Amino acid sequence: MDTVITVSSPEEEQLAAAAAAAVSAAAPAPAPPDPLAEENARLREELQRLKSEQKRREVAALLSELRASGQLTPAMEYAGIEEALVSAEEQGVMVSLPSGQRLSFAAVLKDVLAAIPCSYVSGCVCGDAPATGGTPQLSADELSVAQSLGLTPQEYAEIRG
To answer: Distance between CA 11 and CA 152 in Å, rounded?
Structure first.
């Protein structure tokens, strides 16, 4: 803020100079940047990024486990199950069960999917093959190999023979 003082005599000029000096002395100088605060902010951002990466790895491991057991379908993945789980994990979403127990959203989803008979989820990929036209049972390792090759479990089973 600039102060404008109109002067008409030498005494007023001296008073005006003194007032201007007092006004400029009273104005606080801008604070110099605080390197410690800047470093703390940088470290908080880095910690948040690392936590987010860890949550993504945990979700990827869970989905890999569910995929290998035949409890995760391509439709579930297409519907955005990974993004939903990552978001819920990053936000710390907890589910309160009727028993009073509190579990993470990912843990509840894993338990729900584990409770569904896999023949309903994956067309008997992870269970015994039906007598007509079913896919033979694949181990978790075989399912993982099939997925890494971009094959469906049925295609892998046919190649495997």
So the answer is: 96
Cα–Cα distance measured from residue 74 to residue 53, given in angstroms and rounded to the nearest whole number:
23
DSSP code of 150?
T
- Summarised one tens digit per residue, pLDDT across range 20-67 is 776 665 556 677 888 898 999 999 999 999 988 998 898 888 888 888
Q: How far is CA 29 from the centre of its chain?
A: 42
User: What pTM does this model have?
Assistant: 0.49
Residues 6+ apart with CB under 8 A from 63: 72, 77, 81, 82, 85
Q: What is the largest CA-CA distance in the chain?
A: 114
CA distances from 17 to 26, 28, 86 (A): 14, 19, 64
CA distance 140 to 128: 14
Sorted by where each begins, the domain ranges of the chain are 44-116, 118-161
